Amino acid sequence: xxxxxxxxxxxxxxxxxxxxxxxxxxxxxxxxxxxxxxxxxxxxxxxxxxxxxxxxxxxxxxxxxxxxxxxxxxxxxxxxxxxxxxxxxxxxxxxxxxxxxxxxxxxxxxxxxxxxxxxxxxxxxxxxxxxxxxxxxxxxxxxxxxxxxxxxxxxxxxxxxxxxxxxxxxxxxxxxxxxxxxxxxxxxxxxxxxxxxxxxxxxxxxxxxxxxxxxxxxxxxxxxxxxxxxxxxxxxxxxxxxxxxxxxxxx
Length: 251
Ligand code: PEP
Fold this sequence. Notes:
Elements: E1 5-9, H1 16-32, E2 38-43, H2 45-54, E3 60-64, H3 81-86, E4 91-94, H4 97-102, H5 107-119, E5 123-128, H6 132-136, H7 140-149, H8 156-159, E6 163-166, H9 180-198, H10 200-205, E7 208-211, H11 216-223, E8 230-233, H12 240-247
Parallel strand pairs: 1-2, 1-8, 2-3, 3-4, 4-5, 5-6, 6-7, 7-8
Helix pairs in contact: 1-2, 1-12, 7-9, 11-12
Bound molecules: phosphoenolpyruvate.
Phosphoenolpyruvate binds at residues 9, 167, 172-173, 211-214, 232-236.
């Protein structure tokens, strides 16, 4: 059966020293608690090695927030999937709306990144989600279907390793959360799209996380929905107590 996962996305926040401190706090809490979900922190590239040195990756997963669409070579400033994997990370966020919006990531680049992540044993947390205009003009289901379908070149074995994160762009960092019913409707839609391509077993086993202003106060209601398998958490992941408050929503 699919896993419940709470994953933090630290974005471009914290110095290395602050990040190591935060990671230690989260690690201690995760070790002390009896959590009914997998817990992951996705951190800036600079933080991967030092954070890997202070956490137990058997209990707290570690991920990057992006990786390059090329394997190696003359791509100044890029960080490849093998580089990320060599730090001890096991996850990588791909296709976050901030990457799509500010750095021009397209379905084509994301296909290449996903391939390289999988080839290097990284679990992609693949983000999809509509912008406000698409929510308001009613095209949101089609928009999200086509983002998920960008992965449909993968064979079933590879697709079964993917975690999907539904993040309505209008809810990210805005304090505006999708209602639990809106999240459930979209997650059920995504699962149906996956089922049509890969069959019921793979669809049922795919973890679909919700992201967008998720907090300790709304996580329980969101996670209670049958197709919401956890969260991708931005702002609330930057303090151990609020992040753990979300993890505890599964208890
Ligand atoms: C995110 O960026 O992945 C996210 C969900 O951000 P926030 O929780 O701050 O809305």
